[in-house]
Amino acid sequence: MSTKPLTPHLLSILLRPVLWLTLAAMPHASHAVEEPTYEVLRTFGTVELRQYAPYVVAEVVVQGADGDAGSQAFPILAGYIFGKNKGEKKFAMTAPVTQTAAPVKMAMTAPVTQADAPGGGKLVQFVLPQGVTLDTAPEPLDPRVQLRQVPAQRWAAIRYSGTWSQANYDEHLALLRVALEKEGVATEGEPVLARYNAPFTPWFLRRNEIWLALR
User: Fold this and answer.
1) Which of 60, 83, 155, 166 lies in disulfide reach of 88, CB 3.0 to 4.6 Å?
2) Position 27 pLDDT exceeds 90
């Protein structure tokens, strides 16, 4: 009986659990996973207003539904930090992995992972370790991966646990918007989903956040 060869798309699906397990094991057990530096400016309820310092990301634009964007982007970005770059440099995994709607211009010009997928695209980012700059970060070998410095920015953030379902996201985005409106805090731009854990982390232990840029 003949078997069909694995396509690149199917192979990436099969390898995702392995990639997540490897990434989760990369930081030493006695060290916390690194995050971008920020200062909490104000807290009300479950909402924090934060001032973030600049940091560098590896990012990719993918097409498709919100729930599929992370799965599509993960093997592409993981390839970069695993050494798929000029110099074969490897990076420790940091947090969070962020996802938001891609700016229209970026969505129209960036390579996509599904040629027949509709929509404007989702921008998924891996934060690179502190001390990495655009000058010192190795050039990606995959043209879909782009490097960018995120400028200093103030964000409103709400933290919650649970699954990555659309319903859970929508519920907490609504809570964030209501809390900010009550406090008279103006925001702008698209919301950002920030995920701090691998998919195999129990849902009740997950740290999820939604960010809105302060105006």
Assistant:
1) 83
2) no
Torsion of CA 68, 126, 57, 65, to 10 degrees: 10
Domains and CATH numbers, the chain: 36-53+152-215 (3.30.200), 56-149 (3.20.80.10)
DSSP characters over 98-150: EEEEPPHHHHHHS--S-TT--SS-EEEEEEPPTT--TTTSPPBSSTT-EEEEE
Q: Is the pLDDT of residue 109 over 60?
A: no
Partners of 125 in the β-ladder: 59, 98
Nearest alpha-carbon partner for 20 in 75, 67, 69: 75
Please name the amino acid found at residue 93.
M
